[in-house]
Design a protein that fits this description.
Elements: H1 2-15, H2 22-28, H3 30-46, H4 50-64, E1 67-68, E2 73-74, E3 79-81, E4 87-88, E5 93-94, E6 99-101, E7 105-107, E8 119-120, E9 125-126, E10 131-133, E11 137-138, E12 143-144, E13 149-150, E14 159-161, E15 166-167, H5 171-182, H6 197-225, H7 242-249
Parallel strand pairs: 1-4, 2-5, 3-6, 4-7, 5-8, 6-9, 7-10, 8-11, 9-12, 10-13, 12-14
Antiparallel strand pairs: 14-15
Helix pairs in contact: 3-4, 5-6
């Protein structure tokens, strides 16, 4: 149990640059508290102590604002960032290394018994406010953008955005998403066709960063081909600071 808790704490540092110490994560992160309580509630559920499992889950909900049904199956290194308003249904199955942001719902679309909630593969990221509904599968490494509503399966390593969700398949959109991920911004992704001026400005910034990187890499290759040494400071020029982008949108 304590080994899993240490693993959870280490995973927070990998995904949240705001984390400063293990003690802070252990005492001040509701997502960690909710995951810890769920393990206990799930153990009770598996031993057919159903009322007690629901009661533990209910207490955790009151304390953290995160509702996880004790019947849900959750893997290792599970991280809920911020956490408030997250709802995970009874038959949901979540793989290892999954990240959820606040306001996420893994819900059902039927009152029938049986499998009625989503299955998330390893390494999935679900952005803030997204709703993933029904017995669908989100493939390993896939991402769901903020406020997306997903009713259909998402392939592994794909990105789904919008309402209803659609798979990003354009080359420029994929490059933009990759750049956003490097900047630590993809969890709050916005659809390209939104009218929000801030969203358009951010997409313009990402597109410019992608094009700048492409030209810089081409220039370095040309210099190396010409026999010019590009080691040292020159090779590290034009690096975009992700913390700067964070300050822009705070």
């Amino acid at each position: 149990m304590f080994a899993r808790l240490r693993e959870d704490i280490r995973s927070v540092f990998d995904r949240d640059p705001a984390a400063r110490s293990a003690w802070e994560v252990l005492t001040c992160y509701p997502g960690v508290h909710a995951a810890f309580a769920h393990r206990f509630a799930h153990w009770l559920w598996g031993h057919r102590l159903r009322w007690l499992a629901r009661f533990v889950s209910h207490l955790a909900r009151m304390l953290t604002g995160i509702e996880i049904h004790p019947g849900a199956t959750i893997g290792r290194r599970f991280f809920i960032d911020h956490g408030m308003g997250v709802v995970i249904g009874e038959t949901a199955v979540i793989g290892d290394g999954v990240t959820l942001y606040h306001g996420v719902t893994l819900g059902g679309t039927s009152w029938n018994k049986g499998k009625r909630h989503p299955t998330l593969g390893d390494g999935v990221v679900i952005g803030a406010g997204a709703k993933v509904l029904g017995p669908i599968t989100i493939g390993a490494g896939a991402k769901v953008g903020s406020n997306a509503v997903v009713f259909k399966d998402v392939p592994p390593n794909a990105t789904a955005v919008g309402n209803p969700a659609r798979i990003i398949d354009g080359e420029q959109a994929q490059k933009r998403e990759e750049k956003a991920e490097k900047m630590g911004f993809s969890a709050y992704a916005v659809a390209a066709d939104m009218d929000d001026p801030l969203a358009k400005a951010i997409h313009g910034l990402l597109d410019h960063a992608v094009e700048t990187d492409r030209r810089f890499e081409l220039l370095l290759r040309k210099l190396e081909t010409a026999g010019v040494c590009v080691e040292g400071e020159l090779a590290n020029l034009d690096k975009f600071d992700p913390k700067y982008l964070g300050k822009i949108v705070d």
